[in-house]
Amino acid sequence: MIILPVLEWASWNVSFGGPDTESGPLSGPWYHTHKTQLFGVLLAAASNFLISVSLNIQKCTHLRLACQTEPKPYYKSKQWWCGTSLLGLGEVGNFTAYGFAPIALVAPLGCVSVIGNAFISVIFLKKTVRTADILGGTLSVTGTYLLVIFAPNVPQEITARQAQNYLVSWPFLVYLILEIIIFCILLYLYKRKAVKHIVVLLMMVALLASLTVIAVKAVASMITLSVKGKMQLTYPVFYIMIVLMATSCAFQVKFLNRAMHLYEETAVVPINFVFFTTSAIISGVIFYREFQSAALLSLVMFLFGCLLSFLGVFVIARNKKEEHLQVPFIDCGHIPGQNLADKIQPDSHSSYYGTLNNEDDLVKSQAERRKHN
Predict the structure, then answer these.
(1) Backbone dihedral region for residue 241 (phi beyond 0: left; psi -120 to 50: alpha; all else: beta)
(2) How many CB atoms lie within 10 A of CB 1?
(3) Which of 83-97, 165-179, 280-294, 351-365 is least confident?
(4) Looking at per-residue confidence, does 204 or 33 come out higher?
(5) Dist CA 88 CA 51 (whole Å)
(6) What pLDDT, on a 0 to 100 scale, did the predictor assign at position 331?
(7) CB-facing half-sphere around the CA of 43: CA atoms within 13 A
(8) Please, are residues 154 and 290 in contact by the beta-carbon 8 Å criterion?
(9) Buried/exposed 103-130: b ≥16 CB within 10 Å, e otherwise
(10) Is 80 exceeded by the pLDDT of residue 159?
């Protein structure tokens, strides 16, 4: 009569983290050893979700202003500033998350922003939820679960002295030299040979991003330790990391904006997510040695989780239509100083794209006169 309740109590402990638990993803020891990086995971996920909300608010603001008869500048809109504030808060949360969780775990959580955007746009932009959104979200959530469970459990408090030692370690120096060589080749192709392929642009973004996440994690960790009373801000490496973070981030944004200008968002977002996540994981493995003591099974399952997240983002972004303003013409009546009310309909198939309708006839008549002369 007493044995069955005891067995049930032991089973409950193993499954849900009772005092006699030895292992398991929900066990007491697992939570105790992973609670710091679990906080980083929740912070990163919440921050990426907040970023997706902010971007939808900003896009909704731009669309509303563009449809007004006399649109005012977007920076005078309270709604736009609300979105900007949420964006800044989300980025600060992402920055802080690197101080509590490994790079290999925080970087793939960018898929939360893509998933959130697919569903939040239903509220702000009145879109419909597609089957691809549900499938992609399911794949990404499953991949995220595997990432959290099989992520490397390494100390996240990086001191200034540890950062100095990592900077001069030979694996990182070899990695840095190879990265500089590849980046210079890509930059040569982009600048001198005018190769503006999406892979070239986003490869440069990913190479810069790998340095950014290294610096961000070091700075976030040293600030966290300083807040706890272990002052790290007096070391020169702290300011070296800040300069590296700011410089690499600035050029990263430059090339990413160029890619967004030349290509559709549906192509840029998934490719950039895969490249960024891959480069971030590699940099974390080499610089912070995050998988140094990981078991083979954990490594395989972690990579499988990454693959599911990548696949989910591609499924969500696939065949996704861009939002365009429903204005197929230029209304001359809205041009200051003009009293015209006619509408110019550009013919994209004409060799004189963007000209007035009777301009082709004028050009033809001029050409005929030259022949007669």
Answers:
(1) alpha
(2) 4
(3) 351-365
(4) 204
(5) 8
(6) 43
(7) 20
(8) yes
(9) bbbbbbbbbbbbbbbbbbbeebeebeee
(10) yes
Question: With contact defined as beta carbons under 8 Å apart, do 9 and 2 qualify?
Answer: no
DSSP 196-254: --HHHHHHHHHHHHHHHHHHHHHHHHHHHHHHTT---TTSHHHHHHHHHHHHHHHHHHH
CB count, 10 Å around CB of 64?
A: 14
Mean pLDDT is lowest, of 146-150, 170-174, 304-308, for: 146-150
Classify the C-alpha dihedral 245-186-200-313 as positive or negative: negative
Q: How far is CA 282 from CA 55, 117, 295, 307, 358, in A?
A: 29, 27, 17, 15, 60
CA angle, residues 138, 310, 152, in degrees to nearest 5: 95
Yes or no: say if 308 and 140 are a contact pair by the CB < 8 Å rule: yes
Q: What is the pLDDT of residue 220?
A: 92
Measured torsion, CA atoms of residues 90, 92, 96, 98, in degrees rounded to the nearest 10: 70
> CA-CA distances (angstroms) from residue 56 to 12, 130, 180, 270, 290?
43, 17, 36, 18, 35
Distances (CA, A) of 189 to 182, 202, 334: 11, 13, 43
Structure tokens at 204: 């440069």
Residue 54 structure tokens: 């902010």
Task: For residues 200 and 196, give the distance between their C-alpha atoms in angstroms, rounded to a whole number.
Answer: 7
| Helix 265-287 / helix 170-191 crossing angle, nearest 10 deg | 150
SS3 193: coil
Task: Please state the pTM of the whole predicted model.
Answer: 0.73
Biggest distance spanned by C-alpha atoms of the chain: 116
